[in-house]
Amino acid sequence: MKRYKSALKKNHPKTLRYNIGFMFKNFFDINDDKILRGMMDSYYSSNINLVLFIGQLQESRRNYFNPDDFNIKFDLKDIFDGIILWPTKLLAGHDLTEKKINEFLENYKDIPSVTISVKNKYGPSLLTDNTEGIEKTVSHLVEVHNCKNIAFIRGPEYHNPCNERYKSYLNGLKKYNLKYQEHLITDHLLLDVSSGMKSIDIFFKERKLVPKVEVDAIIAATDKLAIGANQRLTELGIKVPQDILLTGYDNSYVTKQMYPALTTVDTDFTQIGRYAIELLLDKLKGREVKNETIIPSKLIIRESCGCYCDTVSKARQIKKSSEKKDTNSRFDQLKHNKEHITKKIKAIMSDKEIPNNDCDEKLISTLIKDMNEGTNNNFLNTINLCIKKHIDNKGDPIIWHNVISEIRRYILETDLEKHQIENAENLFNQARSLISIHHDRLLGEELQKYIFLSSKVPEIGQLFHYSFEFPKMIENINSGLEILNVNTYYLSIFSDSNDVKTLTLIAGKDKNKKLNLNKEGLKYPTSLLLPDVINLDEKKYCFCVYPLYHEDNINGFITYGFLPELRFFYNSLSTSISSAIDTALLFLKLDEARIENEKLLSTIRRKNIKLKKAVGELNKANEMKNIFLANVSHEIRTPLNSIIGLAEIIKSMSSSYQINNNTDIIVDESSKLLDLINQILDISKIESGKFELMKESFDLYELKESIINLFFSQAIKKGLKFDFIIEKEIPRIINGDSLRLREILINLIGNAFKFTDKGSIDIKVNMIKKFKNFLLLKFLITDTGIGIPQDKQKIIFEAFEQVDNKFNRRYGGTGLGIAISKKFIEMMDGKIGVMSKEGQGSTFWFTARFKTDNGELKIKKEEDIQEYLNIKKKLNILFAEDNPVNQNIVCYHLNKFGCKVNIVDNGRKAIEAFLKEKFDVVLMDIQMPEMDGLEATKIIRSYPSGKDIPIIGFTAHAFESDIKEYIKIGINDVLIKPVKRIELIKKIVKFTAKL
User: Fold this and answer.
1) Sheet containing 245-247: which strands, arranged edge to edge?
2) CA–CA gap between residue 990 and residue 995 (Å, rounded)
3) How far apart, in whole angstroms, are the C-alpha atoms of residue 352 and residue 307?
4) Which residues contact 482 (CB under 8 A, 6 or more apart)?
5) What are the beta bridge partners of residue 211?
6) Contact 420, 401 (CB under 8 A)
7) Which of the residue ranges 215-224, 856-865, 871-880, 968-977 has the most confident prediction, judged by mean pLDDT?
8) 466 has which bridge partners?
9) What's the rounded Cα separation, in Å, for the pair 504 and 522?
């Protein structure tokens, strides 16, 4: 066999030991842990080397399938004889398909592989059963609890396991001749807790089903759906299991902690771990193996199905009879059925993988004896010995609850005396307590180990960060891992952040023997995993490889000699080590930058003449800034002027309230944007001396009405009194710069509203002097707000200044408004000032000079513009958009053409609406809360009905690369915000012309 120059060599000729790689998520998931236990059993009993690759340190960092998600930076073909892959636990989302897994495995088709939960066209696969568990659930609900009306909460249409579970539910109904009832089944729901809550609203609010009468039990396709259902049932006052029975599927950790604990279905993942190794070894040795192996599932009975909540009266109805019955004959009947009951119990124990050892017969014999005599020692001693034997065989004592339930059911079916039944119930209750004691004791022993180790992890994590220099940091890592008895590990980082093909071994121990490394470490190809100097030819080993992540960057790997008792702490340890290394690398780069900076400073000193020239060029560039700003102003003002102008034209065409309201929004929002740009550009122009005020006639009272309309809703919302009074002596028409006067008033009044929460805001305009050709006016803006401290009243008139940073954080603002207003006022031959007391309000005042003008304003009439577009059919449109203003605008345009528009405000609701109703076209905003438009589009495209429906995207991202990515995902075309009506209708006509 070919030899490879590597610390890990394929299939060692001397020992015939195979190198097996297992790639999975982490040790926190219960099923990961179970699979690992099964693999470790095979590792101990087989002549193999095992390397565990941790796919992720945290939750999935990406939404889509990518080989990098496995953190595989080396060629597996040169290291391993075979690999085991659990892809569904490495990546999140339903986008992970059998096709994509096989595309990944295409790179490693030369070596055998085994996949878990996903079919593998290059090798055997272990698939979890989704049929037997649900069939057992239906049987249990019907046979034990006599349920007739069983509801089912379905999962997503794209989720094949949920579809298989639903089919098994239907088969269960058919098996027991139960009628299929559509109102007891939900539509397809997403796999989350909120969908489980929604299912209960569907059953009991929308369909108004009556618990116990119209629905006896609910089966959820997954535990998450069951958890949500249980939460919503509790909120509605429907008790589980008293009013309704509930079951789930997956046996997740939280199901044991629920109240009541959830009856669910469990897959034997420990067996999967064993089978995976066995299948791979058979494949390596040339033996014939099945392409697919189905791992059976088991029903885990807990309180939510009602098994542990029945009282004696609920167990059976004791027949009343005035006739005396022969007690001995009834008890003889029980003894006669002893053999039959024993066979039943033996079958149950075999199904639960409980070793027999004559426990079944002894249990029934001692139970009958104690029932009749009123004792308890015989039965309890027997079951105690049985449980201990089960625990010695690494079994879970909690499974004995199922055995007790089945024994109880068979015993109570026999017609016995009341005292015998009461004795039996007492025995069963004591037996359950005994089972719980064993279970708690096991948990306690494990917990003590973990508590001891976990108490040291935070302290050790801090130790890693005591120094930012690499030699001291490595020393701290060595010390910390020694405290945790990690005696074999190899710490390697990438030699260059831009090159992941070479690693440098910087620290390590081999069975407590420290590696002798020089200051620079030992470089080696990443594809080897470990350098040649680590000779593993004659050793059997189990390694665990962790990527050293910091945010989304990977700095290297740490390889542990795997210790099962430390498996729960490798994640946190590796995270701390990764953080320490990233910090040390950062300081190393800073030190390199410091040295480089000293060289640059030396160069700068020698080239002082060039620096002076650069300063001159900088001054020239500063002059060019104003030209640039003027050009930007022109380019922004031109389209804004068109928007405002067109809106005002539309407004003048009709007195309709709806048109006025919409155009007011356009004008106001556009004006706000224009005002912001004006503030930035105006202060630059004023400082350069190039700003000039306009001189034109305007209506002061019309300006007043404009101001009132602008702030009226604010006053109503905050409950403030708002008055604007102009002295009668002041003429209506005056001459000056109305735009700058309006800007001054908006700045000052806006500040008054910003800092006033109760009371009033009053604006007064007084005549100070009136001459033949001009007049001097005084404007006063008085509020009852927070006021301004005396020592801060001068600085507020300076550019970018505010009273205090805390006001910026609370109230917002750039600090430009008042400074610009002051400069405008001075250009109007006026002054500005303030009178204020902290906590009592403020009065801002300013004066300004205007020319008198006895003429009348001329109002130009503008022509209407009507656009004609042809929509041949009244379309049904789904519009996903979270902005209310955008919703109203688009809906208004489409309604004008007779379209029906269904509006939703996030991607999740868009999917739900799509599944309920047929649409001709979908308008999809890209950025929305909960679920964005891209994710929603992918899910819609996954349905058969969503393959061809036109989807038009709405986005503010105008880059061509973004648009190409959207179209690649499944969006047909894109509209760039702000969206014009003509463009919107054209896109819709383009995709619906053939309808």
Assistant:
1) 150-153, 217-220, 245-247
2) 11
3) 17
4) none
5) 215
6) no
7) 215-224
8) none
9) 5
